[in-house]
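Entry type: protein chain
Record version: 2
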Amino acid sequence: MDAHDFTIGFTVDQTPDAVFAAICDVRRWWSADITGRAERVGDRFIHRVRELHRCEIEVKQMVPGSRIVWTVLDNHFSFTSDATEWTGTDIVFEITKSGDETRLRFTHLGLVPAYECYTVCSDGWNTYIASLRDLVANGEGRPYVGEARTASEQALMAPAQDPR
């Protein structure tokens, strides 16, 4: 892991198995529009945010209650010069138990500050990992459901302003 890869985490009172199960339920914390599955190694799913972002992800590794790794097979951003910035990157969820609490460490390996999408993507991950935490802690995530959730999404989805 490079020190510059995007990383965020949280701690909850629930079990590692509860955190693991919530991660696999991507429609309840990331996007209700996801197609495909994320429950077993080899599963693939597609995440879309209007015409702004589309990516295909494959589940690469699963260690129940401990670790999940996804690989981005294909990516398209409409708002960057290199539309494929995420292609070939890994998204890693590491779950550890500490006393009565469970810690999740989320790292998007290869999502680095040098990427043009970094600000938008880190804003998104901060929002959706908080949604994952809410799903684990309260049973209700706050996934993308067609409307902008982050300031970055709002700016990118805003209609072009008439310069007059």
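Comment: The helical segments are 16-24, 118-138, 151-157.
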